[in-house]
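Project channel, design review

CF: Before we commit to the Chryseobacterium antibioticum constructs, I'd like one complete example in the thread so the newer folks can see what an input/output pair looks like. Taking M23 family metallopeptidase.
RD: sounds good, go ahead.
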Amino acid sequence: MNIFCKLLVIILFINAFTIKAQKNYPQNYFRNPLNIPMQLAANFGAVRSNHFHMGLDLRTNSQENLSVLAAADGYVSRIKVERYGFGNAVYITHPNGYTTLYAHLNKYYDKLDEFVKEKQYKDEKWEQDITFSPGQFPVTKGQLIALSGNTGGSAGPHLHFEIRDTKTEECINPLLFGFNIPDSIAPIISGLYWYDRRFSTYEPGANGIAVKKTGSTYTTDIVQVSSPEISLAIKAVDKANQGFNLGIYHAELRMDDQVIYSFSIDKVSYDDTRYINGCIDYPKFIKDKMSIQHLSSLPGMKLKNYSLPDLNGIINLKDENVHTIEIVLQDVNGNTSRLKTKVKFNKTSDQTSPTNKMVKANEGKTVTTENAEINFSKAAVYDAVNFQMSEKSNTNADGVSNTIVLQSPYIPVHDYYTLKIRPNRKLTNEEKGKVVVLLDYGSDTNVVQGKWNGDRMESEFNRLGTATLLLDQSVPSVSPGWKEGALINSSTLRLSGKTKIGDIISFRAELDGKWLRFARMKDDFVYIFDEKCPKASGLHTLKVTTINTAGNTNTQTFTFQR
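CF: and here is what came back for M23 family metallopeptidase:
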């Protein structure tokens, strides 16, 4: 077959793939949920910390309170109000078997907003997760359902929009439904990497290969490898006429004109979204903020509907001949990029054998030190880990145990492991009730109140790092944004929360003896004045009770005039 024929076959295959993916879903059934043209800040499947991005982030021109509209006829089937995650969110169930989700909202439409508010006051609870029957809040296509915002786990004003299968709750790539988002730019490739797969992608890790663009094709120098068993990974982004770095939709790896691996990001469930850590070079992502996607399957990566099960992408070089490699990347609109290179095995010395503390995918493992024990399940790791666990002196003034070093934060774990730590001194029963476990994973910390199992505290985490027991005898507090007894003319009351260790896990505010609805905005608590505290209503007493992770309680009283 000549070069032209080969190229024609590839083009036909890619076009057929794109058409087939889009024909699986109704076209033009859903409308743009905003009144401005759809512009993407993030697409479906983009790499996030410990999860795939599960919808589209639609730009709102850096503004809040834009009208958010129902994408099709249906009914409001659920709302959520939460500190992180979606913030304020609306779910609409449609008669064609799909549910749309709209997140990071500032406010629901009036009738729904009033219902939610009444329930919050009835429950005396700000966070809510409410489901509705079909007849309660029906909506029509294009109807106002909310105002856009920046609530929850949002780093700037935008609308997060999802389409889910109503029965399975799987999130489906919204770009497969025919939205009009112009895109004429092919994915941009900036790096190629190879891994020695005789043991693990984590050791010795990625070997970078410089990429250059020649005409319309990307190329590299011949890839000289020192292992007969390797895999490849690609660093690439999709610009999609938007300027933002979007995720790659489809990739295909060919060796000597044979497809040996292929992935497409069509649908993912929230139960499986953490498998992103087995689809990327996790150490590079955490250390260097680089999104590098594997063109192979790691042994512990069990994500459904992502890659073909009979193509694992492992390249077995049984000889020292030169082999051709082609990588094809494609977006939903069919814009395509290709990287062509060659690979050659140069035999060297054998690989060093791993230690007896190796944790393998699909195998459980228990590792111990003098004062600690960690238990991994069969689903703990994506690839083999030469696991190292040790103890060192604790330098934290509140520490009551050695610091337990758990490998490093650059190795991912999939599900929760159990960690048991023995304190380094005898604790009273009262002290035991105030002990928490601090996990430091580099970019942040996680503090939990574990449970005592004999003479050790037991807790669960799903990241690695350093762990220690802390005795927390401090109390949480809030600081008002006004002077005591001041006249408040603004539309809100704001309290800033603070706790020495862990988090404020419970907050209750009472105005003149009655529960008052404060929203949690990251570490602040915000009340928007309403009929519960009208203007010219005199001097008010606000009593606030907070509880931190260790269970320590503090009650504070403030006054203001309105």
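RD: helpful, thanks. The chain has four helices and 48 strands.
CF: The chain has four domains: 40-177, 188-345, 358-471, 477-561.
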